[in-house]
Amino acid sequence: MVAASALSSCATLPIYKTAIANNKVSVPVALFAQSDFQVIQPKDLFYNIGLRKEKDGSYTALLLRCTHADNQLIATGNGFKCNLHGSTFDKEGQVTQGPAEHSLKKYQTEIIADQIIIHLS
Amino acid sequence: MRHKQLEQMKRFTFTLLILLSVISTQLFAQQKPNVTSEDSLNNNLSKSSTTIGGYGNAFYQRNSRTQTATVNLERFVLFTGHKFNNKISFFSELEVEDAKVSGGESGGEVAVEQAYLKFNLNANQYIVAGLFLPRIGILNENHLPNTFNGNERNYIETFIIPSTWRELGVGLYGSLNNLPINYSVGLVNGLSSEAFEHGTGIREGRFEGRNASGNNLAITAALQFYQGDFKSQISGYYGGTIGVSKRKADSLGLQSGTFGTPVAMGEADVQYAHDGFSARVLGAIISIPDADKINRAYANNTPKTEYGAYAEIGYDLMYLMGKPKDKQLVVFVRDEKLNMNASIPSNGVTDGMLNQNYVVAGLSYLPIRNVAIKGDIRIAHTGSQNPDLIINPNPAAQPYQQNYNLVNLGVALSF
Asked: B138 to chain A: nearest residue by CA?
């Protein structure tokens, strides 16, 4: 069971690196064949994006930037954590431990052909 | 004459207007227009900004051994951070302990707890430079008082790992792209073994950013692993403790140099949280192989080995009652064991009082996440006092009590 859990954690890795074009990031739908969550790393953004596939087939994109002091968040097994002052967020981007008080910024997404488009503006 | 003055005034005004329009054109020209959408995006996210935050805690404590009680504003800390751009930020913490510092009176402290620049290499890696908290243990990095149970920080992360332990240096932090592992490595100034004090471990040997000796340095490193609801960490520290010149060190019989007369520390911890239940386990051990030489030079009863460990479980009763997630009522119990003189050199003195066991139990009520109202009792048991260390024997002083308790009631906050 421990090994299976470890493998499921690894299914969100490796981090998917991509470029930004016209304020948008394009991610292949095929990335979500084995996992409902992926970390996206747009070039030159300095923050990762957590992209999650919802049960209704839509996608939620969360900017992994702590809402307390703008520090980068790391993905944990059950959400996200800021190592600057210890704030944690659940997978939906809601605060689970302070000092952050606001939920994570969400980006609009749409599916075009076999690509998930994340609108970064 | 008057006509001439008027003409001169007109020429001067016209010249001034021309000059001003040239200057303003230059100023506007210095603002680069957005060239690409990436620039626009980065400009949206890279606005410089200054943030202010902080934390604090105060509590009443009743000591059954001394039959006294104290009420104290233990800490008030202000964070100030400034984001210059997406690549460079500054973070700081300014701490006041015990509310005030008055000249000539003991107690109280004003200290810079952190002050460092952060350089982002990319979204996953960054470098810090300045006064920072190495990643050792749990509390050293994440010590907000509303995030741990009990009014006091646990004693293992006070006297074995001397949190908050901050030194000057540089550090590299990162997350692997292919494995759920975070890493950190740091190079900081070393400790001062001359300042070690009997009864407080290596705590008094910290420089905390003030006039630290640069001859002796220390390396710290940590690995964190996240899996499901578990978070685990191992960390290590190795540093020299002699900052004086080689000539002076030789005269004291001490090994100087970058890692001379070293202190080595190892730590491991596991945390778990799921559906209102939380647990954490931590162990730390310190080795000071040249403790005999330190004792010979400074007579501060430095031990060869110290260790500590604790295990805590907690449960959020609000979760059981199906209450909103931002309210918590956590009942907890924690067992702490530490021995600050687990092994001593031949020229040391064993002190049973430094072999300590505690059971801490209590409640933490969080009406909102960033505020906690806490009540706890710390039941203490220590080893017996060494008769050779008794300065005021009974009846001049009360006999030492190996068993006592502390009752704590307090509040904590962060923002």
From this structure: A86
